[in-house]
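Lab notebook: predicted structure, single chain.

Context: the supervisor wants predicted structures on file for every construct in the current expression panel, including those that have not yet been purified. This is the next one on the list. No modifications to the sequence; it matches the entry in the shared construct table.
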Amino acid sequence: MTTGSASHPGLTVYRQLESLGAAEDLDFALELLKRARTGQLGPSLRLYRPQATVAFGQRDANLPGFSAAADACRERGFEPLVRKAGGRAAAYHQGTLVIDHIEPHPDAIVRAKARFSEFGELLAGALRSVGVHAAVGEIPGEYCPGEFSVHGEDPDFPAHRIKLIGTAQRVVSGGWLFSSVIVVEDSAPIRDVLTASYAALGLDWDPATAGAANDLLPHLDVETVEKAVVEAYRGYADVIDGDFRTLLP
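Prediction complete. Output recorded below exactly as produced.
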């Protein structure tokens, strides 16, 4: 990872204090990517706490049980949406932190896979900095499995590992968007809605792999993790504070 060098001269951090709406929040990330690829937005980091949402993958939406899965989400207060990226269903709510990292790039496909490893390590490092035993790597039975997921270990029971961060990337001509979701607080509703959703879809997984960072480190909150993430990004680029309101139409 390059450290605050000329190759990453500046990264503007935009803290979104209120949700735009479940679907609107997802769509706005793509709007920012569009602006970046057309030269209207420089390297940016958008941080926000989302409304309760289950983001299904394209493959999920084509399964016979998708309608039942969507109903199960609504019954539990989660909005079912289908995201543009791949993967399987992932759930998040106000106890999670969403990070949208957007950068313009003339050849965005270059190092696309490397970003998963590098930003996974960056985010795992942010969690370690606040005391969570975190590492990069898929754990058996996790929801929305990914090679570069970030998991946490219970220091008293190392065999108990839970998924804490899922990542996804969208690459277009002229730019890229790297999105991450950190589950920090209140894991029970997430575990419950994923259990119901995956059952309806007919997908196997291990509910014990769904958890939150404060399951491992009690009293940890989203604000603390957000500060740790921004600090970790200072090792990637010169961080500049931005005003999210300037991004709105």
